[in-house]
Design goal:
0% strand, single chain, mainly alpha, DUF7945, 5 helices
Amino acid sequence: MSALVVLAAERPALDGAGRDTRFPDLTNAVHWLVDDTPWDLVDPVTSVGTILCNGDEADVIRAVVAAVVAVSDRQGAVASDAAWFGDRGWCEVRRLAAEALTCLAP
């Protein structure tokens, strides 16, 4: 859930090197949502009953992960946070993450 909060938030103030200074920051959010799960390789529906509650949650997570991976493909894993936040698809990441938060809310 914390990863989605970071992704859905307004663009934060960045340091002089273009890095997100929050904790959790953009890097951690991407790691938690994409790198620490198999969801970029395996459909999130496989996590229903363990991490996710139902197919609706799997659907919104699938969309967020796809949007984040698309930004990563364009910007690269080592690009600055400023580059990620400035990507043409970042607004879609934010929108989908906010939608996921609404769906996952208890």
